[in-house]
């Protein structure tokens, strides 16, 4: 039988009633003649609650033990859903990430999948079971439990879909699909029927929460068909496909606006402007497993320059420890951090052949008196760092400037 992989987020299984609703959908899919594997996140705010409890004990919990703690949320959700599916007369069996053969590297908190050994899962499917799998977790090459980072259940689902040769990986969320902007910030945002892997990658990297970045990377690399669907209704959702699979009439200049409010800016003042200094700074940061996003270096004066970059806000505590050593090692004057920023991004494959997009975006922000502190671009994305207080207004004005709520988007056809 064809294999269908379904992933349900924390909101989708946040209550007993919603678990029952998901169980109904799963049972219908199985009765439709499919082998079904379901990946679940922890219920509601369980992961946040567990993390808060750990942080009340210490601001920097030991990573191995934190992973052991956080993975318990998914185990609860998978067991309850398996109980609910079994109660409907549809045989189900639940498995943790380690039982499912998801092997990761040794990086606690944001491990990467290095191999999937799906033998046990295949046997369970062949025995007629619906397989319920705990997302967000795996077993490291050192035999420790690891977590895959925020949104890691999406990656679990795509990895299993690739390993099993599934027809489709369905990601069920609390929204109706992928929109031209977060509809909570811009009510006129329009749902997209299709979006390319490339555009979805940029939106995810720019802060769109609908799909985890690594999930989209994995899907594109392994040719997994992705579909984002609403968990609580029967909407059509959004397909994530190759660019050449999108009909010409649906191809747009701009696909959407994304906002990331989870980053902070770091500035090193009066850094010596000589070869090797930037390498020393970013090697020290990378050694701590901290991801750097945007980087801006000012023009040098008297042999010294200022260097600014952005990092995840959650890493600020760790970055302080790193920077204290860096300032001394590279003989910089001082460093400062700023967590009052947001990153606004405009994404669209049509930018590749359309000059003037950046100018229009900057003009829209200037019209609203919104200052740009940093700029970063790719062939299909323009990102600006602005003040967090201006973020919602910035999304609305840029969305309006490019007519993204219209039925026919600018540049289509």
Structure overview:
- The protein has helices at 16-31, 46-57, 63-70, 72-86, 119-126, 152-164, 197-205, 213-222, 277-287, 316-330, 357-367, 391-401, and strands at 3-8, 35-40, 92-95, 102-104, 113-116, 130-134, 137-140, 145-147, 168-173, 194-196, 226-230, 238-241, 256-260, 263-272, 295-297, 304-312, 334-338, 341-347, 374-378, 381-387.
- It is α/β, with parallel strands linked by helices.
- The two termini are 39 Å apart.
- Residues 408-413 have low confidence and may be disordered.
Walk across the major sheet and give the strand order. 3-6-2-1-9-11-12-10
Strand-pairing-aware structural class: alpha/beta
Q: What is the CATH homologous superfamily assignment of the domain at 3-250?
A: Acetylglutamate kinase-like
Distance between the termini: 39 Å
Low-confidence stretches: 408-413
CATH fold title of the domain at 3-250 = Carbamate kinase
Main sheet overview? 8 strands, mixed
Gross geometry: globular
- Average pLDDT figure: 92
Give the class-level CATH name of the domain at 3-250.
Answer: Alpha Beta
Q: What is the number of helices?
A: 12
Beta fraction:
25-35%
Helix fraction bin: 25-40%
- How many E strands? 20
- Label the CATH architecture of the domain at 3-250: 3-Layer(aba) Sandwich
Radius of gyration: 23 Å
């Amino acid at each position: 039988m064809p294999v269908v992989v379904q992933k349900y987020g924390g909101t989708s299984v946040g209550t007993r009633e919603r678990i029952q609703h998901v169980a109904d959908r799963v049972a219908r899919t199985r009765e439709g003649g499919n082998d079904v594997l379901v990946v679940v996140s922890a219920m509601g705010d369980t992961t946040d609650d567990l993390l808060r409890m750990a942080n009340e004990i210490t601001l920097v919990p030991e990573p191995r033990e934190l992973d052991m703690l956080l993975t318990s949320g998914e185990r609860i959700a998978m067991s309850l859903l398996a109980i609910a599916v079994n109660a409907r007369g549809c045989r189900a069996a639940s498995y943790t990430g380690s039982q499912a053969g998801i092997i990761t590297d040794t990086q606690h908190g944001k491990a990467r999948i290095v191999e999937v050994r799906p033998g046990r899962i295949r046997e369970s499917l062949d025995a007629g079971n619906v397989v319920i799998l705990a997302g967000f977790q795996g077993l490291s090459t050192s035999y420790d439990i690891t977590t895959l980072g925020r949104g890691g259940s999406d990656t679990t689902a795509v990895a299993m879909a690739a390993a099993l040769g599934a027809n489709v990986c369905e990601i069920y969320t609390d929204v109706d699909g992928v929109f031209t902007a977060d509809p909570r910030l811009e009510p006129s945002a329009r749902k997209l029927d299709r979006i390319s892997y490339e555009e979805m990658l940029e939106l995810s990297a720019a802060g769109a929460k609908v799909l985890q970045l690594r999930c989209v990377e994995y899907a594109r690399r392994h040719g997994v068909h992705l579909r984002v669907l609403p968990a609580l209704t029967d909407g059509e959702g959004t397909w994530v496909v190759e660019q050449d699979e999108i009909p010409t009439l649906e191809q747009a200049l701009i696909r959407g606006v994304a906002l990331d409010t989870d980053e902070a800016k770091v500035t090193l003042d009066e850094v010596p402007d000589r070869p090797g200094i930037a390498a020393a700074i970013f090697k020290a940061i990378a050694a701590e497993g901290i991801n750097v996003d945007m980087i801006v270096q000012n023009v040098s004066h008297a042999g010294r320059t200022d260097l600014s970059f952005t990092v995840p806000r959650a890493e600020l505590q760790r970055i302080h420890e790193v920077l204290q050593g860096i300032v001394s090692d590279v003989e910089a004057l001082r460093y400062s951090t700023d967590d009052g920023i947001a990153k606004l991004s405009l994404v669209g494959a049509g930018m590749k052949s359309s000059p003037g997009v950046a100018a229009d975006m900057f003009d829209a922000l200037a019209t609203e008196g919104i200052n740009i502190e940093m700029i970063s671009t790719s062939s299909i994305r323009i990102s600006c760092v602005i003040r967090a207080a201006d973020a919602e207004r910035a999304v609305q004005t840029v969305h309006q400037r490019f007519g993204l709520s219209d039925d026919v988007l600018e540049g289509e056809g």
